[in-house]
UniProtKB/TrEMBL annotation:
Pfam families: SRP54 (PF00448), SRP54_N (PF02881). GO terms for biological process: SRP-dependent cotranslational protein targeting to membrane. This is Signal recognition particle receptor FtsY. InterPro entries: AAA+_ATPase, P-loop_NTPase, Signal_recog_particl_SRP54_hlx, SR_rcpt_FtsY, SRP/SRP_N, SRP54_GTPase_dom, SRP54_N_sf. It is a peripheral membrane protein. Involved in targeting and insertion of nascent membrane proteins into the cytoplasmic membrane. Acts as a receptor for the complex formed by the signal recognition particle (SRP) and the ribosome-nascent chain (RNC). Interaction with SRP-RNC leads to the transfer of the RNC complex to the Sec translocase for insertion into the membrane, the hydrolysis of GTP by both Ffh and FtsY, and the dissociation of the SRP-FtsY complex into the individual components. One of its GO terms (molecular function) is signal recognition particle binding. Part of the signal recognition particle protein translocation system, which is composed of SRP and FtsY. SRP is a ribonucleoprotein composed of Ffh and a 4.5S RNA molecule. It comes from the Bacteria. Belongs to the GTP-binding SRP family. FtsY subfamily. Residues 291-304 form the SRP54-type proteins GTP-binding domain. One of its GO terms (cellular component) is plasma membrane.
């Protein structure tokens, strides 16, 4: 077994105005692909008419919102326009913001990791979604909340996955539990036991990425969840699915498959850094609503933040924060 010894946990940090502004700017830049299209549509002037709705529909669908969520948003928007007697195209921006908040607001449920000790978070997702990187960033965030963290290197399939997690452990000064060999369940079992003995607040358990179409691998990850429950009967307390925002509607398929297998309790949407369109959050809200705990906009340690629906919509539509 390998581990890095954890240094003292920092006290809960208060975010400065500059840090908040920096995050908003990065989020806005990350959503600019869709945001610029919407800004162009609403800034042309003219009246609200069927042609305007049709152009908006096209933008939403190409932004990965999906047909069902797009139809819901447009129907709600038309009602809003009638009720408020809106006429000008530029007035539609605030109306869309209102309708988006109704759709996305229920997903903005923060993670509370203080309800159990240790609080065990099982991290899952397909290969390449940014799972291990998200673990490193999440460890930093939890430390900023005054919580002690331990990492479990349960991705025993991908080459160098253990070493990657250990690097994140060193950067965050947290313990990493790993083995030279052995399966994921055994590694995570050891980590939960170690966390109990050392009175650690949170265990972040990495698992191997897998395609949802690989039935034997999905069965294997179910086993990992069962083994965690053997050492701590009410664990895992959170099953976080990491999604790459660039995968569009395929992300919705991943949500459905992983939720059916494991009972996903929260989502992390990564790589909202300029190439993603951002609309998949709306598709998930409509078709399979699960709380979006965090979103990520880059590779830095501080580039993962709790999902705030109003903040997200303001950044997308270029509204004042």
């Amino acid at each position: 077994m390998f581990s890095f010894l954890k240094k003292s946990t920092p006290a809960k940090a208060e975010e400065t105005v500059a840090e908040k502004r920096s995050w908003i700017d990065r989020l806005k830049a990350g959503l600019s692909r869709t945001g610029n299209q919407l800004a162009d549509l609403f800034s042309r002037g003219g009246k609200i008419d069927d042609d305007l709705y049709e152009e908006l529909e096209t933008i939403l669908i190409t932004a990965d919102v999906g047909m069902d969520a797009t139809n819901t948003l447009l129907a709600d928007l038309r009602r809003h326009v009638r009720e408020h007697k809106l006429v000008e195209a530029e007035e539609l921006k605030a109306g869309l913001a209102h309708c988006l908040l109704k759709l996305l607001g229920p997903l903005a449920v923060p993670l509370h990791a203080e309800t159990h000790k240790p609080f065990v978070i099982m991290m899952v997702g397909v290969n390449g979604a940014g799972k291990t990187t998200s673990i490193g960033k999440l460890a930093k965030y939890l430390q900023s909340q005054g919580l002690s963290v331990m990492l479990a290197a349960g991705d025993t399939f991908r080459a160098a996955a253990r070493e990657q997690l250990m690097t994140w452990g060193e950067r965050n000064n947290v313990t990493v539990i790993a083995q030279q060999s052995g399966d994921a369940a055994a590694v995570i079992y050891d980590a939960v036991q170690a966390a109990q003995a050392r009175k650690i607040d949170v265990v972040l358990a990495d698992t191997a990425g897998r395609l949802t179409t690989q039935a034997h691998l999905m069965e294997e990850i179910k086993k990992v969840k069962r083994v965690i429950a053997k050492v701590l009967p009410d664990a895992p307390h959170e099953v976080l699915l990491v999604l790459d925002a660039n995968t569009g509607q395929n992300a919705l398929s991943q949500v459905k498959a992983f939720d059916a297998a494991l009972g996903v309790t929260g989502l992390i949407l990564t790589k909202l850094d300029g190439t993603a369109k951002g609309g998949v959050i709306a598709a998930i809200a409509k078709a399979h609503p699960i709380p979006v705990r965090f979103i990520g906009v880059g590779e830095g340690l501080d580039d993962l933040r709790p999902f705030d629906a109003q903040e997200f919509i303001d950044a997308l539509l270029g509204l004042s924060a």
